[in-house]
Every structure is written in C-alpha cells, then in structure tokens.
Amino acid sequence: MTMSILRRASYSLALVPALLVAQRQPGHPIGKVTTIGNLIHLELDTSVAHQRLFDLDHRTLRFTPDGAGYRVENVALVWDADFGPALSAPTVVLKNFSFPFSGKSWDSLNVATGAITFGAMRGGRGAGGGGGAPVGNRTGAGASGRAGFQLERYPTLETVGRTFINMIPGIAALVKTNLNGQRFVKELADRVIVTWNVSEPSTGIQAFSWTPTVNKIQATLYKNGNIELSYNDITARDGIVGVFPMVTAGSEKQLGAVELTGSTSGAPNLSLKRVTLSQVDGLFLKATIETQGPVLPDGDPAINGVAYRIGLQNGDVPAPSIDKSTVVWSIRGIAGGRGGGAERGSFAPRYIASGPGAEPEVTVNGNTISIKGILPSELSGATQIAVSADVASSGSTTPTSWVARRGVSLNGIRSPEVDLSSAKKSDGPFPVVYEGFHWPQVPRATDLACSVITTLGDKFDFIASYSDFRVDNPEGGTPSTGPRGGNVSGIGTSTNGLENYCSQGQLQWMFVEPVSTSAVQIQEHSPDNRMKDYDYAMSQIGHELGHRWAADASALVNGERITLGPVHWAAGVHLPAAFPYANPPRDEADAMGGSTWKDNGDGTYTQLDRDYYSPAKGWSWLALYLMGLAKPEEVPPFFILRNLQRTGQSDAAGHPIYKGDKTVITIQDVIAAMGPRVPDFDHAQKKFNTAIVVVTLPGKAPTKELLTAANNIAEHWIAYWAKTTNGRSTMTVSPK
Can you count the helices (H) and strands (E) in the chain? Predict the structure, then answer.
C-alpha cells in the first residue's frame, strides 16, 4: 500500500508524515450522499465538522506572571489610539527598561506579523533541547520579521499552536500565514506598545476577499512582566493567540504504569509488557510502551505497517475498546512512499506519531518506544484517565498484544490550550497558554471518495468538491491527490492505493478539500471584471486534476537523465499549449507549469509566459501525450533551459530576459527514460467522468449560491476540457 503525492497549484506540498499515515489508512463514509441533478450532495456527519472561530474582538486578554507561569483574564478592551511610528525593520531595541519573559530580561524584541519573539531560533527541540522547527512544521520563515513563529505554508490551525511550544520564546497576538500590513511601536516609561494594522490576502486566486480586510491588533508589554493583547475590529476568524515561554527543564515524573494482561502472540517487539505515563515539566504527557524484546529501530524496513496504540479515556471507567477512547495516540511504522527506493518522494522507514495533542516525534530505546505531547483539549480538566494500549503487526488490524485499561491520576499536568474568551484570573497558572482558532477540519480525501463511491458506485474518474463553508486551510484553493486508477504506465507514476479510496480501478485523481463559496476562485468574475467567466475555477480544476498525469516525466539525453519537473514542469522547460484556452500558443504555457520561451539568438531567452497556472491554460503536446491524447509523433521537439539567470533586462512588453543552458529534448528521449506510454494513443481512455460534489455541514442543505456556482463550474469544465484537448477527449459530470 503506497501513498499518492499531494499537490498544490504552482508549488509542491511538503509531505508531512502524519498526513501520510492518515491518507494511507482506508477511507470510510463520513456523511449522507444524495444527488441534485448532476451534482452530488455530501452532508457531513457531526464528527468531522468541529470548528472554533475567533471570538475575542473588542476585548483584551491580560496575562499576569505567577511563578513560572501566567494567569489569564478576559477584560474590556484596552486600546491606545496613538500607535507611534511605523516600523521599517523587525528588531526593536528597548531604551527605558528590560522586559522579563521566559526566565530572562530582554533589551530587544522581534516584531513579526502578529507576533513578538525574543532571541533567535535554536536547533533541536523538546525538553532541554531549545527551540527550532518541529517535525511537521518545517517550512516557512521562522524567526523572520514576517512570520515570527515558524509556519509551513498550509498549517492546520487547529493543531499548529502546539508546535510553537519550545520553538522560540514568543507571544502570539494573532498568528496565521499570509497576513500583511503595517507594524507600529511606541515605548513609554513602563511599557512598550506594538500595534498591527494588517490584512488577509486579497484579489489573488488563493484569496478569500477581493479587497483588503481590517485587522487591528495591539500588544502591550509592561515593565513588571504583564502582557495585554487587544483586538479592535478583527475580520480574521482563525489564528493562534497565546503566550509561549520556553519550558525545557525536562523534569519528568511518573504518573502510573499499566501491566500486560491477556495473551500475547506476536514477536518480542510486538509483545507488550507495560505502558507508563509520565508528565514532563507539568506541560507534556509522555507515554512509554515497554515490549518483551527490542523495538525495531528507525531504518528497519520491517517497521512498515507496525502500529502501537494508546487509548486515553476521560475518567477512571475504561472505554469498551481503544477505538472508543476519548483520545487515541498512535505510533505507526511507515516506509517507501511513491516510487520507493531512492526515487523522489520516497523516504526511509521511520515511526510517526499522531493523535490529538501528540507530537510526531517517536523515541525508540531498547525495549521501549515513547511518544509525548500536550494534554489534549479533549482531556482538559480531567484528573483521572483510564489507559489502555495494543499493538498490531504489519497488514493486520487484530492486536497481537494489549494491556489492561486502568485509572491513572493526572496530578501536576494540565492542557495549555484553553478557551480564552472565558478565561478567569483564578485559572492557572499556566506555563504556556494559548488558543487555536480554526475552521472545520479538512475531510480526508479517502473518506470523501468512499462516501461518494459506496453510495453511487465506482464510476468517477475525478472528484472536484465545493462547499459553502471554509475548511482549516489558510488559502482558498486545494491540493490534489488520488490513486491514479486506470493502470497507466510510462508517465513516471503508477496506480496505487485504490482500496483506500473504495475504488476498484476507476478513480484517478481528486481535490484534497472542497473549495468554499467564500473563496474568490469559485466566483464567476471579479468586481472589476478582470477575471471573468469562472477563469479562476478553471485554473484550479484543470491544473489540479491534470496532476493525474503530470509532471513526473524525465528524459534521457546523451546518457544523462534530465528531470522535467518535479511536481510541476520546471520553469526552464519550453512547453507552449497545443490548444490554448485563452491566448495565442506562444503566449500560453502548459497548465502544469513550464514557460514559453523566445530564443533571442544571442544566448538569451525571453520568457513570454511564466510557469503559473492562472489564468486558465491548455496542455502542451507533451502533456497530451502523457494523457493518452496525442501520438508520440505529434509531440514536437522542445527544450529545457538550465542554470537560469536573470539578465536584469526585459523586452518592450515587460517580459523578463534570462540566460540559460539550452538542451533540446525529443519525445524519444522521454520514452527512453520512462518507457512508452501504456495504453498507447489508440487504446487510451478518451471519455472521462467527474463527480462534482457539494459539501455541507451537518443538517444543512446546499445554499443557492453553492448550487449555482457548482453547476456553472461543471458546465465550464466540460467546455474547458473539450477546448484544451481539441475534442480528442470528452468530459461528463454525471452521477448516474
């Protein structure tokens, strides 16, 4: 069982191992499916629709130091209308006092967008290890003047707040990706006031607004260590708010141990002996599983598919099974990835942890394997929990060994995630305290596919989903994923994981998440009509579903393997659209990336169209070949420019001019690298069917706006497909 690669328009989406684990697990229906004309309606179950939206507007949060922690209270708005001068650089040097925070006194602070941090990122993480980006939160601009806390491009705001713990000493006034605007600072004798006037992204294809939004935020740091976070006209409904001192003493105290019960039938590493719970620094819950023999280490291929699970049940009465526990922490062995071996997208065998509050890191030491995380919010306030554990071997869902469920006291540990709107000074003190505001979680693609297919049958090649609510993603678009049904070879990828999507071979590719009616890309036109006729929607659906075939190709030229991607065609590849959607051929690059280049004859090249998918574009002859819609002999020679360098010049129309090393490539070079496409043009699939799914929250019918947009997008999708394939293929949107 392998995992297909997630895609994001114009960028590769870094693989997060926890997400890999989730997508490798078989899907299951998550709601009620009906049809409305040519649309499919999925009404979600209540279990997948939780949200927590920002509710602190026109209020002030006051954090008062108490020992090594803070007490928190929600009070009437405190606001200073005199912001002071605008900042041109992130570092602010204090002149009147030093600010006490995280066990130190600071003479300077870093003002990022929506955050204040102190010092710099440090390598390593965890008890005693300093800061640094945690696994699962690796990309982005940590410690920069823009981001402050390190964020990947698409953080899940329901859970990303926990990764700020021990990353860098800091204060999250309102942290989320893509905020932009002005920062101001004013220092008085006893306090420094930082004010942000920022907007969420607007106008662009991934935005939720055509115009800038208003978000006025103020942080006041007092000489005595008090902190106030104030909110005055906040449009954003998601983000992280809280105070994050470093908590790295590493003081561990055992809470209790649970011994083996019942029979055991596995290998020594799959035979449980006991589970021990500990608290670390009063902030982290640590669970250590001890086995009868050495636990297989990272790097051992035999760990693939091995699953250790820990059930944590609120109260001292055990759950009837681990699956029904209040919280389940899982440790799974994963290996391989797409292609396996040393190919792009593969990874060495390793363990990865998942579950509410859990950190992804896993520690193996002899006969033990450990996981830790914050006390999940589901267990907030609990003083006693019932603990259970089991383990299953690769490919099995039946445990080979388990430990008894029994009560363990949670003395000395509490969840750092709280409801700040109801916070009282009597609460606490908290060593770290925050709240993550978020939209509903993204339904798993495998679950959405299984919901549709188990109800209507396995008759959809693609699935595109739309909703009248936002999901927990800071951008308005969606990545794509899927099992690559159809058993096509010779394109750089192969069919895998059909069973996870409940497909017997039909389903090929799909959106990862529904596109909301609040996203600008679902709308028919922009207010100024610069974008019209659902062009943004065609950009998204054409590009994302095009990932079923592209862009994983390579070429073998004079014995050298040249990668033409990865994920999207490289900027230097000259791939004009064979049948343009909106522009002349030389002015429209392939929908999957690449560029159209003009050879100036002097070693320089003018980029007439860049490697970006919007406005909507057609497919190159190479892409059509990979799709089975062009014969090899129809693909003209093309070229790739490597070692691209800007000359600093542009042509009269403003197109940039580059230098680069030109290599001409033929379709035979591509076939030499990957083998011929099978099935070939004469036998390749030419008729495709897309499920257009409208997703609603529990108990909700689709809005008129959603139905209108989905129907219009479906109609344009059929027309887009016909035009960009020049009638060589047909697309339907039939649920019957």
Answer: 6, 41
